[in-house]
Design a protein that fits this description.
Elements (H helix, E strand, L loop, with lengths): L3 H5 L8 H15 L1 H19 L4 H38 L6 H23 L7 H23 L7 H24 L4 H28 L6 H4 L3 H6 L1 H23 L4 E3 L3 E3 L1 H12 L2 H29 L2 H40 L7 H29 L3 H25 L6 H23 L1 H6 L12 H8 L1
């Protein structure tokens, strides 16, 4: 959602509680509205399947198919999303708007090819029927396309239309499911998967129409679309950052899935419900800081950020530049501290609330304890995310890449260790990894900000190097 905060800034110009509430409500809908709608969709669809008399086995299969589609589409597109955000920003800055839409289609082609090969390998030994496999691939593909399109949609100011598109698609899903249920055309499981495939297709098409209205009327030949390959050589660190960050987000789940604690659904999907469900609820607790970050940090830091770099381009004296640097660091430190204090309070409130409520809805003592430690881990995890975004604002890609790699590798190693230590340590691998990563990330951020003048003036290349890496050669070959 990078860049949305700048467009939402106008919502907070007018003073008063009403305008503040209005601004934060709209900001919430823009930043996490689609996520909340998707959570509602999955939850409601489970109840609808139960109402049709569908078996627990098939409801479980439905749930794991959707979870796998969301998780692995995010992992595969994670690096692409980071790359796309930077490429769109460059195109807008250089006034090369004709390259934006072709690049989106080019990235979609790349992701669909990766997804096609990956899902075929995954389903090689699967015993589920071919219809479910096809629907799973289509849903996976559509979600991947939506991830990519959402980055390009940050160039559009009408963000409420994005939420409306999600709302239209989800309403279509429920209507389609009821139609299939009444006509008895398919089994409830197939009806649910087909309805979701249909609804996500509507969302993807609505997004495409929006993008075409803004950037259409350009060359969409395969040559133009795949020209984005050359950018992968220039910003290769962004691909690694996105891939490692989102792998780190799920790797602790994967460890439990393949351990003795995991279970197998339909002889295909591995899950660990006693760990996965607490993790799901723990991630919900970081929604507030996501909204606050998008509105508060971006809108507060941008004027100072812009002023500092305007002076750095030769419009101010050394004294002015020093003062602007101090203002920038001061605002950034204040806002980060403010957000983390609020989120820490929210985290402890959710832990106390969860420890009382979760057992009453069927959580075991083990899952309840896992929820508590994973909620603390999620607080540290989202703090790492904030630092990564700040570093990328300053184009410190190497520092952000090192942090994302550190988070992924430590999460993998620490979680494996906790498996051997026993159930009393479950969840501590993710917590320890996120806590260690956030400490290192703040150290790196502090070091960068202290030397920001060096990175601004002395670290830039004197002569621009011509990039002719693997992806550029592949593009020329194609």
């Amino acid at each position: 959602m990078s860049g949305i905060g700048f467009q939402l800034k106008g919502l907070f110009k007018e003073k008063g509680y009403f305008y503040s509430i209005r601004g934060y409500f709209i900001s919430t809908m823009v930043t996490v509205g689609p996520t909340v709608l998707c959570i509602f969709l999955i939850t409601a669809m489970q109840f609808l399947l139960k109402s049709t008399g569908e078996s627990y086995k098939n409801i479980e299969l439905f749930l794991v198919v959707i979870v796998y589609c969301f998780a692995f589409s995010l992992i595969i597109t994670g690096g692409i999303i980071m790359l796309a955000a930077r490429y769109v920003a460059d195109c807008i800055y250089e006034k090369q708007l004709n390259k934006i839409l072709p690049s989106m289609f080019g990235l979609v082609i790349i992701v669909l090819m990766l997804g096609f090969f990956s899902i075929n390998i995954f389903f090689i030994k699967s015993s589920i029927n071919i219809g479910t496999k096809i629907l799973a691939y289509l849903i996976f593909s559509e979600i991947s396309i939506i991830w990519i399109e959402s980055i390009y949609l940050t160039a559009i100011k009408d963000y409420i239309a994005v939420v409306v598109s999600f709302l239209i698609g989800i309403i279509a899903i429920f209507i389609m499911f009821e139609v299939f249920n009444i006509l008895l055309i398919m089994t409830p499981l197939s009806s649910a998967l087909f309805s979701i495939m249909f609804g996500f297709l509507i969302i993807a098409v609505l997004f495409t129409i929006k993008l075409y209205e803004l950037f259409g009327g350009v060359d969409l030949s395969l040559k133009s679309c795949l020209e984005v390959l050359k950018v992968m050589d220039k910003y290769g660190e962004l691909i690694i950052i996105g891939m490692c960050y989102y792998l780190g987000m799920y790797v602790h789940n994967f460890v439990f899935w393949i351990s003795d604690q995991g279970t197998i659904v339909a002889n295909t999907f591995r899950v660990a419900p006693f760990y996965d469900v607490p993790m799901f609820y723990a991630f919900l607790t970081i929604i507030p800081i996501t909204v606050i970050f998008t509105v508060k940090l971006e809108t507060s830091i941008y004027p100072k950020y812009k002023h500092y770099y305007a002076l750095a381009q030769g419009k101010g004296s050394i004294k002015d530049l020093k003062r602007a640097k101090e203002d920038l660091i001061g605002v950034l430190s204040t806002e980060l501290k403010y957000m983390m204090e609020i989120q820490l309070f929210i985290t402890f409130a959710f832990i106390i609330f969860g420890m009382r409520i979760l057992p009453s809805i069927g959580f075991t003592l083990l899952s309840t304890n896992i929820f508590a430690i994973l909620t603390l881990g999620s607080f540290a995890y989202v703090s790492v995310f904030l630092v990564l975004i700040v570093l990328l604002y300053f184009d410190h890609r190497k520092g952000a890449m090192n942090i994302s790699i550190l988070f992924f590798t430590t999460n993998l190693i620490f979680t494996i260790i906790t498996i051997y230590l026993g159930s009393g340590f479950y969840g501590y691998g993710f917590f320890a990894s996120a806590l260690f990563s956030v400490i290192i990330s703040f150290i790196k951020l502090d070091s960068f900000l202290r030397d920001i003048d060096y990175y601004t003036f002395a670290a830039q290349p004197i002569i621009a190097k011509k990039i002719n890496g693997v992806f550029t050669k592949l593009y020329n070959l194609l």
